[in-house]
Specification:
The complex is a heterodimer. Chain A folds into 3 domains: 100 residues, Rossmann fold (3-Layer(aba) Sandwich), CATH 3.40.50; 70 residues, ATP-grasp fold, A domain (Dna Ligase, domain 1, 2-Layer Sandwich); 247 residues, ATP-grasp fold, B domain (D-amino Acid Aminotransferase, Chain A, domain 1, 2-Layer Sandwich). Chain A has 15 helices and 22 strands. In chain A, the strands form 6 sheets. In chain A, strands 13-12-9-10-11-14-21-19 form an 8-stranded antiparallel sheet, with helices on both faces. In chain A, β10 and β11 form a beta hairpin. In chain A, α4 runs antiparallel to α5 and α12 packs antiparallel against α13. By secondary structure, chain B is an alpha/beta fold. Chain B has a domain of 207 residues: 2-enoyl-CoA Hydratase, Chain A, domain 1, CATH 3.90.226.10. Chain B contains 10 helices and 9 strands. In chain B, the strands form 2 sheets. A 7-stranded mixed sheet of chain B has the order 3-4-5-6-7-8-9, sandwiched between helices. A two-stranded antiparallel sheet of chain B has the order 1-2. Classes of the chains: A alpha+beta, B alpha/beta. At the A-B interface, β2, β3, α3 and α11 of A face α1 of B.
Chain lengths: 453, 300
């Protein structure tokens, strides 16, 4: 094992290349015509163009990526996040081409990738899921019956949806009647599959997730929780580890459930299990992400480890040797995603060239950037410029450190959300841990916009 | 914290990637150098400027026909070097190992969106797709197969012309293919030619101009003698875009110029339009295998 092909772009590609360099592994970066001069291409040992800027012809083009792996004799492939990272066909094609795919087995990916199958598996094995329909709902009549049983408000969700798309909350039977066909049609158009299912909508619930790591020899551990409730349109903006303001007994139960789930599905490599935590302390399985997550650095910071390195080690067949009891976290970490978007203009993307960039630093401050000054943030891909991860001995320290670091951060040439993030950190609701998945949209944004006037 | 009891070890100091350089191609449009395999994996279209690279035969078949439907015939046919032409045998061998092909054309049957067709695809990476006895014979065979089984025939042309190393035997293939295709045509069967870059010489002078419908890829050079030869002969400046697909389209020699990404849809539409008249609802007279054995008996 010598060479890792990084099948991604931007920040996560840079992140993976850096760990490979640390381990003495060579890297092959693949890029679309748009990213020819991007940071991953500059940092990798070899970089090669795999197609035009449209993702489906480049970053999603399995044939091109495998041809690049073959041409440069890569023996491992890291899919990063997004793009092909949860594509079981890609994992399978890698295996067929004799490449080690850094991630779980294709079978596990298939099981977890289909939300209904995953949900069914959880129910069959006695894990708690959000009350909802058993499988997809074919008719409005069934939908109404199920909704009455689980109680309004309910969510209509596209079976093949993701990333916050294909979800609609309805408050009563009349709204359900109105929206049901609409969501189905949208799902058909967006995902090529019009199946939908119903789920109870839990107001003021929190998004708590557990980092899982499992090797190929049956060892599985958790690396604590992350709080990811600060979301806008289901896109996370700020994450922290561990989850704050939760009863330790409940956290323990969530973590143990997560490990049990990972064992139950035979999970291998790093993965994340997302839970919804209701205000009354009940928690439910939402989904398992069969890949590394964007917010993984907060876990790394408090556990003092490198999850991408661990992923590579699992893929190499190494044995995990440290028992769960000996894995101890220290302190508290917060991650802010700095995106090229304008919060004052309804978060409109703000692509453009970064004219200059001044980054904060110092003890406890980590920057994972996908761009440098002079680089262009393209309108064709996601708008994340960098991640700021701040680690303190406790939560208050981490908040102050993060706030200070944000005030030092300056990016010229594009609009970004650093000031917005700083305002979130200063909000009393956030500081006391009284947030939930709709908090940004329902409470904070109106408050923020009022403050701007 | 290290959770593992093994250390990541790299097996060799200098990883392979920096040693051997993969085969590269230069784009005719933007002049950039690119890795051949990656370019071909992406339909042989330049990701930077959209210019077309010449597409290898098997790759083209993959992008045109229904997945798994292609059955090749006469893959192993090889030239016997009839004139004992100096260096020809070694040349053929090196072309074979370089291109993963046995000869300059791949022929067989397949379906395109469920519509059955015979197909021949020439490959300009094998001795510039030149037509010798084997290329001619394979075109004749697939045409006869199509005639016998009442199938339409699609030929992707790409050729530098007749193969010099086989002399007059190469030129003979012009009449053989022409006659075979005339018989196919007499049976009111559809023949579609797709002219790709470059289609020249003896191929242009025979079957490449014989199709019922002639399509071409954008920018393809199509002609008999090359532009330089013509310029030297006539001693005059040639018009701009001379012998390109676009130039010929304007003058009515080509029916339509089709982008590579639209080729499968276009061919499927043409096959569907012409199905039923003569070809589609007639059951094949012989199975592929029977026919194949029969050809072998006849030839041996």
């Amino acid at each position: 094992m010598n060479t890792v092909l990084v099948a991604n772009r931007g920040e996560i590609a840079v992140r993976i290349i850096r760990t490979c360099r640390k381990l003495g592994l060579k890297t092959v970066a693949v890029f679309s015509e748009n990213d020819e001069h991007g940071m991953p291409a500059r940092l990798a040992d070899v970089s090669v163009c795999i197609g035009p800027r449209q993702a489906e012809k480049s970053y999603l083009n399995i044939d091109s990526i495998l041809a690049a792996a073959k041409a440069f004799k890569a023996d491992m492939v890291h899919p990063g996040v997004g793009f092909l990272s949860e594509n079981d066909a890609f994992a399978e094609a890698c295996a067929e081409a004799g490449l080690r795919f850094i991630g779980p087995d294709p079978e596990t990916m298939r099981l977890l990738g289909d939300k209904q199958t995953a949900r069914k598996t959880m129910i069959e094995n006695g894990f708690p899921v959000v009350p909802g329909s058993e499988g997809t709902v074919g008719s409005l009549k069934d939908a109404l019956a199920i909704a009455r049983e689980i109680g309004f408000p309910v969510m209509i969700k596209a079976a093949k949806g993701g990333g916050g798309k294909g979800i609609r909350v309805v408050g009563d039977a009349a709204a359900l009647e109105k929206e049901f066909a609409l969501v189905r049609r949208e799902a058909e158009l967006a995902f090529g599959d019009g199946s939908v299912y119903l789920e109870a909508y839990l107001p003021e619930a929190r998004h708590i997730e557990v980092q899982i790591l499992a090797d190929m020899h049956g060892n599985a551990i958790h690396l604590g929780t992350r709080e990811c409730s600060l979301q806008r349109k289901n896109q996370k903006l700020l994450e922290e580890a561990p989850a704050a303001n939760v009863d330790p007994a409940i956290l323990d139960a969530i973590q143990q459930t997560a490990v049990d789930i990972a064992r139950c599905v035979g999970y291998k490599n790093a993965g994340t299990i997302e839970f919804l935590l209701a205000p009354d302390g009940r928690f439910f399985f939402m989904e398992m992400n069969a890949r590394i997550q964007v917010e993984h650095p907060v876990t790394e910071s408090i556990y003092g480890l490198d999850l991408v390195k661990a992923q590579i080690q699992v893929a190499m067949g190494h044995h995990m040797a440290v028992p769960q009891e000996q894995i101890v976290a220290h302190g508290h970490a917060i991650e802010c995603r700095i995106n090229a978007e304008d919060p004052a203009e309804n978060f409109r993307p703000s692509p453009g060239v970064i004219k200059s960039m001044t980054l904060p630093g110092g003890s406890g401050v980590r920057i994972d950037a996908g761009y440098a000054a002079g680089d262009e943030i393209s309108p064709f891909y996601d708008s994340m410029v960098l991640k700021l991860i701040c680690t303190g001995d406790d939560r208050d320290e981490a908040i102050r450190l993060c706030s200070g670091a944000l005030s030092e951060l300056s990016i010229e040439g594009i609009s970004h959300n650093a000031a917005f993030a700083r305002a979130m950190l200063a909000d009393p609701d956030f500081q006391s841990g009284r947030v939930h998945t709709r908090w940004i949209e329902q409470v904070f944004i109106p408050r923020y916009l009022r403050g701007q006037q | 914290m290290n959770l593992f009891n093994e250390k990541v070890t790299v097996t060799s100091e200098e990883a392979d990637i920096l040693g051997e350089k993969p085969e590269m191609l230069r784009c005719g449009g933007c002049k950039r150098e690119m890795v051949a395999d990656i370019v071909h994996a992406a339909d042989s279209i330049c990701p930077y400027c959209g210019a077309l690279f010449r597409q290898p035969a098997y790759r083209r078949i993959e992008t045109i026909v229904d997945s798994g439907s292609f059955i090749e015939i006469e893959r192993d046919a090889e030239s016997r070097d009839p004139l004992s032409f100096p260096g020809y045998k070694t040349k053929i061998e090196s072309e074979r190992s370089k291109s993963n092909l046995q000869e300059g054309v791949v022929v067989g049957k397949a379906t395109i969106k469920g519509l059955r067709t015979a197909i021949a695809v020439m490959d300009s990476y094998f001795m510039m797709g030149s037509m010798g006895t084997v290329v001619g014979e394979k075109i004749v065979l697939i045409t006869e197969f199509a005639t016998l089984n009442r199938l339409p025939l699609i030929i992707f042309c790409a050729s530098g012309g007749a193969r010099m190393q086989e002399g007059v035997l190469s030129l003979l293939q012009m009449s053989r293919t022409t006659i075979a295709l005339a018989r196919h045509s007499e049976q009111r069967l559809l023949h579609i030619n797709v002219l790709t870059h470059p289609t020249t010489g003896g191929v242009t002078a025979s079957f490449a101009m014989q199709g019922d419908i002639t399509l071409a890829e954008p920018g393809a050079l199509i002609g008999f003698a090359g532009p330089r030869v013509i310029q030297q002969t006539v001693g005059d400046k040639l018009p701009e875009g001379f012998q390109t697909a676009e130039y010929l389209y304007e003058r009515g020699l080509i029916d339509r110029i089709v982008e590579r990404r639209d080729m499968r849809d276009t061919l499927a539409a043409l096959l569907a339009l012409h199905a039923g008249s003569a070809a589609d609802d007639v059951r094949p007279k012989t199975s592929f295998k029977e026919w194949y054995d029969d050809v072998f008996k006849r030839n041996s």
